[in-house]
């Protein structure tokens, strides 16, 4: 059932060209300009008029929510708050009638997310679910939703569910933007065209797995890791750190690169690997200076960059090249090398990657 792969996690990482394609199937067509999420239709009007959108989730699903925040705010111009379901439900949040809550969950069974939904529902919010497991508890508790269609995810570390969540949330953001008239026709078309190229670009990144395995071998004994990114790649930094810690038990932290100077830079020495997600986007120059700051303190830099980046390839100890895409879609690509890096490091350390210690696939305890 692992389809010839050594672990479910690796199989699921390699399934992403397919699963991303599946999550767009019948929903996007750039040639005709068609973009549709069936579950959204009935509630689109309410979403257009929502004064704000609250996104809730846990772990990796919360990271997908952060990516969505950037997309929704940039294109649909609606204020978004992203919250850990566990914090949201216990802090007496302000929820008004007509507020829209988007709950993200792979399993659809996460106890904190489910309880947060019930709370928001009792206060009159409209709840939209983005889940992977069909017929699970969360989709049953929501008013409407869209399935991610990533297929069963068995490995405890979430990989293909994350990219599918980001695809669905991206589609939602674009649909909303289009309906509100806050996106230009050019941007709209461009995003649809780019969305359709994501599967083949992921394929290309995966074909480079040997290089990532090679880098993993050189860093497998590290005791700490830092992951830094800006803008759309900031949530990816958090996700890279979470992947590494949960399956390899290496202490890792993700930060927005600009926050480094407010504390974490004190950690940098010749033993600190720093993974930069530094693709060519609007914050490129800024992140290049962050790389210089780390180099100046002898930190070991591994950089995920856009193909043919000559500048960073001279500064970093190792670079991992990925294809170019629209800045807003970059997380779908930049997360892939980080999934592989954590996978290979964990395997090399002899860890049980599919079932890491102390963790469960769905967290049904509060
Ligand atoms: O099933 P869910 O998406 O609700 O699960 C949320 C988290 O428990 C989950 O993403 C967890 O953080 C993963 N192990 C991360 O890889």
UniProtKB/TrEMBL annotation:
Its main location: cytoplasm. Residues 43-182, 215-356 form the SIS domain. Homodimer. This is Glutamine--fructose-6-phosphate aminotransferase [isomerizing]. GO terms for molecular function: carbohydrate derivative binding; glutamine-fructose-6-phosphate transaminase (isomerizing) activity. The active site is at 361 (for fru-6p isomerization activity). GO terms for cellular component: cytosol. Keywords: Aminotransferase, Cytoplasm, Glutamine amidotransferase, Repeat, Transferase. It catalyses: D-fructose 6-phosphate + L-glutamine = D-glucosamine 6-phosphate + L-glutamate. Catalyzes the first step in hexosamine metabolism, converting fructose-6P into glucosamine-6P using glutamine as a nitrogen source. Its EC number is 2.6.1.16. It is found in: Cytoplasm. One of its GO terms (biological process) is protein N-linked glycosylation. It is an enzyme of class 2 (transferase).
């Amino acid at each position: 059932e692992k389809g010839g792969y050594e672990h479910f996690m690796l199989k699921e990482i390699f399934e992403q060209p397919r699963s991303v394609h599946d999550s767009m199937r019948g929903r996007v067509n750039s040639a005709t300009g068609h973009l549709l999420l069936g579950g959204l239709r009935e509630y689109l009007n309410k979403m257009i008029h929502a004064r704000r959108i609250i996104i809730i989730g846990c772990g990796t699903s919360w990271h997908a929510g952060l990516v969505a925040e950037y997309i929704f705010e940039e294109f649909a111009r609606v204020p978004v708050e992203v919250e850990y379901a566990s914090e949201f439900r216990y802090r007496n949040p302000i929820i008004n009638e007509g507020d829209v809550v988007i709950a993200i969950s792979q399993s659809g069974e996460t106890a904190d997310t489910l309880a947060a939904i019930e709370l928001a529902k009792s206060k009159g919010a409209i709840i939209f679910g983005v889940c992977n497991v069909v017929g699970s508890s969360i989709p049953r508790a929501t008013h409407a939703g869209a399935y991610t269609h990533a297929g069963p995810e068995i490995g405890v570390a979430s990989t293909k569910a994350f990219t599918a969540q980001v695809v669905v949330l991206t589609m939602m953001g674009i649909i909303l933007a289009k309906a509100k008239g806050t996106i230009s026709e050019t941007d709209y078309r461009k995003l649809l065209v780019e969305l359709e190229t994501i599967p083949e670009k992921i394929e290309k990144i995966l074909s480079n797995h040997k290089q990532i395995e090679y880098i993993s071998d050189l860093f497998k004994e590290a005791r700490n890791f830092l992951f830094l990114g800006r803008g759309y790649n900031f949530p990816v930094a958090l996700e890279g750190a979470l992947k590494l810690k949960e399956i390899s038990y290496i202490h890792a932290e993700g930060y927005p690169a600009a926050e480094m100077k407010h504390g974490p830079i004190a950690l940098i020495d010749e033993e600190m690997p720093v993974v930069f997600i530094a693709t060519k986007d609007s914050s490129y120059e800024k992140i290049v200076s962050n790389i210089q700051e780390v180099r100046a303190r002898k930190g070991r830099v591994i950089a995920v960059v856009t193909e043919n980046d000559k500048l960073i390839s001279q500064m970093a100890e190792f670079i991992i090249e990925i294809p170019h895409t629209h800045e807003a879609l970059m997380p779908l690509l930049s997360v892939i090398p980080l999934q592989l890096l954590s996978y290979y490091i964990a395997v090399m350390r002899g860890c049980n990657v599919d079932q890491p210690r102390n963790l469960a696939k769905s967290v049904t305890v509060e």
